[in-house]
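Notebook entry, structure prediction.
Reason for the run: the old model in the group folder had no record of what sequence produced it. Starting over properly, with the input documented here first.
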Amino acid sequence: MFRRMKPPSEFEIERFDMLKLAVIGAQTLLGRELVAALEAREASVVPLSIGALTVEEEVGDLVVFAPSRLLLEGLDAVLLADTPNFELLEGFPGRILDLRSEPETRIDPMPLAGPWPQGAKSLRGRPALEQVLALIPSLLNGVGDVGGTHLRSVAWMGDRGLDGLVEQTLAVLNGEDPDLTKLGYRQAFEVVPVAPVAGKGRLMEIRVPSFHGDLLVLQVRASDGKALEKKEAPAGVKWVESAPSSRDVAISADLLAHFDVAPDGKAAVLTLGFDPVLWGVLRPTMRVLGLMD
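New structure, fully documented this time:
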């Protein structure tokens, strides 16, 4: 829990030789996780709401301030966890990282490896699934065809997903029809297949009634003349002895990978478990900001 405090003065911000950041939307699930992760890396963080403080924000335990240009002065970067009034950012000289679930598509995505690109003013986050699929060549030798199923939790929708699933679950348990407004579909006690999106190829998305932790179960075939072999795990990945559960994944900052290969090495099941917030957003954010390798 965060204790309430006064907004930091210019002196209090400037006296530390550390990365100085603001998180806009600090009251959201993603915003809270960002603030905690950045402070753990000894960055100076100004947590901001997206507008005037609500009654809950005024009296709550979370430190959050109404946004103002004054609080952005002297900062190195602004991280967007929610949508602000963009007039706030007009003329801001620092970097802007758009981590919203629907970021501005006109700006370049974060690189898949390495720090913030030199000369780039703004970047947007990449979907966790895109990052996972890009990892496959660094996990296995001899990869040919890949297809499978993405078991998707509601965590990618943030507070809206978590609150929506809670409300639907309680309604069903009470014998009521659930309100579909927040999720847009019925998820409580349901497994919901989603038609493949163009560009995802042979990957099927299944939405499951889980709060955190996604699983990607892949059927992998070796390319002609080769056998599938497991490589040493890259940074942020951990090979595990058995296929991970959504709970295993939800409490791990690493992507958990399990490899079950046929005796001849020609086919395998590769199970990849990841949390779309912990692994899909927090880890790459720390990397591009230079707060971790």
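Summary: The first helix runs from residue 10 to 14.
The old model has been moved to the deprecated folder.
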